[in-house]
Amino acid sequence: MGIEWTADEWRTLTIQLVSLTGFVSLNIGLNFFNSWALKNDGPGPHFDFPVFYTMTHMVATVIGACVIMSFRRPATGWPSPSQFVGYSWGLLLIAACSTVNLLCNNISLTLISLFLNQVIKATGPLPTMVFSFIMEHKTYTAYSILACILIVLGTVLSIPLTSKGPQTSVVGVVVVIISTVAASLKPVALSLVFKGLKDKPKLEPTVVLFYDAFISFWMMLLYWLVSSERAATVEYIGNRPLVALGIIAGGASMAFGFNLSAYFFTKFTSSLTASIASNGTKVVNIIISALIASALHDPRNICGVLLVCVSLMAYAHAGHLAKANPPKPLNISFLGKDTEAGKVSEETPLTPAPQSSTQCCVIS
């Protein structure tokens, strides 16, 4: 006899499959849509206004967070001015990291290919590891460290050095590196800023996502108002209103859908499944963008892309193993404090959640 599933089991499986499909497809789709829309040369709408464009994604993220909170009301209540005051410095720092990360990420897409953007962003685990060791005194297994080093090595090999490769710009590379560093610093700085707030209730990831996007929007708006992009944006919208509306609506809709699918995907699956799906999506992004950018004509580039992809999956596997067998402390004093065995030194007022559940709509 076959295995009989209950109605609840079928419902859970359906939600898992639908949310996984949305999580992967919208992740990939949003990356390619951003690159196509923001590119200032070649075919496309040439909507090269990354600050304004990212602002619209912040609006979509705020709306998405509100929809998610309507499904499940946060234990600490809906976001409010009084709640914000209690966590203001930490939330401002989170938003600052997000603003730098998302703006620099989208600015880089106007200067370099999506392929180059993705392989550089894939090196994020290494700076996160360095920051957490220096600031939190957290240790890692040799497996994790080796995987991170191989990701960086693969990235270096992937970068095209000839004119036959994808679009390359020194400024674009520097900007995406800044984005990667900001994204890597965010989770580490988060735990340190909230040190000493153990007497306060923990904020759920969805609440933090709301504050993150809301504050980031105002930071971006202030920059946009005083930047040269403002006049160019207004002129473009005036000359091509339907094109501009389509780009904004398309990007914001995918951002909204991604946030919803990411929430349900992480809610109804394990953290390991979410980690594998997240890293697997990065691999797919890199491979597809490499094929589109014709970045695989050189054996060195091919080896680099393969090394990055394999190392990303190895890093996810190393993280899973480290949870079951945390690394031993180094038994040395670093910056006046002892290193810890694979665990952060302070608790944050955030409920535990897979990394992807608190990401904003622009994929980092």
Automatic annotation (TrEMBL):
<feature type="compositionally biased region" description="Polar residues">
    <location>
        <begin position="353"/>
        <end position="364"/>
    </location>
</feature>
<feature type="transmembrane region" description="Helical">
    <location>
        <begin position="242"/>
        <end position="265"/>
    </location>
</feature>
<feature type="transmembrane region" description="Helical">
    <location>
        <begin position="84"/>
        <end position="103"/>
    </location>
</feature>
<dbReference type="InterPro" id="IPR050186">
    <property type="entry name" value="TPT_transporter"/>
</dbReference>
<feature type="region of interest" description="Disordered">
    <location>
        <begin position="345"/>
        <end position="364"/>
    </location>
</feature>
<feature type="transmembrane region" description="Helical">
    <location>
        <begin position="299"/>
        <end position="318"/>
    </location>
</feature>
<dbReference type="InterPro" id="IPR037185">
    <property type="entry name" value="EmrE-like"/>
</dbReference>
<protein>
    <recommendedName>
        <fullName>Sugar phosphate transporter domain-containing protein</fullName>
    </recommendedName>
</protein>
<feature type="transmembrane region" description="Helical">
    <location>
        <begin position="171"/>
        <end position="194"/>
    </location>
</feature>
<feature type="domain" description="Sugar phosphate transporter">
    <location>
        <begin position="25"/>
        <end position="315"/>
    </location>
</feature>
<keyword id="KW-1133">Transmembrane helix</keyword>
<dbReference type="InterPro" id="IPR004853">
    <property type="entry name" value="Sugar_P_trans_dom"/>
</dbReference>
<dbReference type="GO" id="GO:0016020">
    <property type="term" value="C:membrane"/>
</dbReference>
<feature type="transmembrane region" description="Helical">
    <location>
        <begin position="272"/>
        <end position="293"/>
    </location>
</feature>
<feature type="transmembrane region" description="Helical">
    <location>
        <begin position="52"/>
        <end position="72"/>
    </location>
</feature>
<keyword id="KW-0812">Transmembrane</keyword>
<feature type="transmembrane region" description="Helical">
    <location>
        <begin position="12"/>
        <end position="32"/>
    </location>
</feature>
<feature type="transmembrane region" description="Helical">
    <location>
        <begin position="140"/>
        <end position="159"/>
    </location>
</feature>
<feature type="transmembrane region" description="Helical">
    <location>
        <begin position="206"/>
        <end position="226"/>
    </location>
</feature>
<keyword id="KW-0472">Membrane</keyword>
<dbReference type="Pfam" id="PF03151">
    <property type="entry name" value="TPT"/>
</dbReference>
